[in-house]
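Thread title: Can someone regenerate the structure for this chain?

I was given the following input by a collaborator and told the matching structure tokens would be attached. They weren't. Posting the sequence so someone can regenerate them.
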Amino acid sequence: MTTILLSAGGTGGHLFPAEALAHELVARGHAVHLVTDERAGRYADRFPVEAVHVVPSATFGSRNPLKMAGSLWTLWRGFRQAGKLVRRLKPAVVVGFGGYPTVPPMMAAVQARVPTLVHEQNAVMGRANRFLAPRVTAIAAGIPQAGASGAIARKLTVTGNPVRPAVIEAARLPYAAPQGEGPVRLVVFGGSQGAQFFSRAVPAAIDLLPDALRARLRVTQQARAEDEAPVKAYYAARGIEAAVSPFFGDMAQRIGAAHLLICRSGASTVSEIAVVGRPAILVPYPYALDHDQAANAAMIEAKGGAIVTRQAELSPERLAALLEEILGDPERAAAMAAAARSTAIPDAARLLADLVESMPRSQ
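Best answer:
Regenerated them for you:
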């Protein structure tokens, strides 16, 4: 049995494609291990892995010399711990999915001369993967990388972003646009960054909707723990059926049942919207260092599968108008759903697993 070691930062954006690849590799008879950080707890229990290993890591977000020295020390500890893990497991390939916690295990694998692959989910390569790209054996991309050239371009294969089995299952449900006086299912989520904005903007917009449309709403909304109570209170006061929580374990099913999504445009989110095929209002996270979310949204926007709007321009009046435009026009909603699906690479997990299996094995 071949052992494959997956490494991912502890957020959903990094862990979801790693989870999808893990399922595919296990189905092919491989033993899979996951190395991540302490944030991964609520996601990692769904991984079909032999074990989850937590390795310390750090980022250089501060210019304070003492904090930088502390980050270097943490990275060194993580590198040594990851090196011991690589020597013990003897993986055939190590696959990284981005985020600063991938740096120690990936560098340990490079030093041990184990074949290495990084998967970049976004249209703009993240800082950890940019650092690793010249050093690893191969690069897979979820979205074509604008500006890739030279040695990096020669290493690069576009596989798409693997999506979890639950998303593939949700994609089997065909889209049915809201009709007549029936319920309208609205799903709002902000990922690990930016849910706070939606906790204010969405209720303010809903207050501006016609009474008849507002009465039909059935809302799922992700909200930060500190925003959960006031958002719940808002919906209860207006008699709107709503599920509000910081985290939904069944979000894939909720996306599949949705008539319209309002969300950020992280790479995993955009890929899941495309595979399931649902119309969306995308609001790129404005504080991303590389503006990667705007780039992620560009392809699905160009095909007509989503409306993309800057957060600074999304007033309650603008959002209410968009809700009315899409939910009040079933033909447009259905066309957006079909356009979103046309951008999908639903077999990305298979393509990425093929690439992993094609890599030279460590001796």
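The chain has two domains: 3-163+346-358, 168-342.
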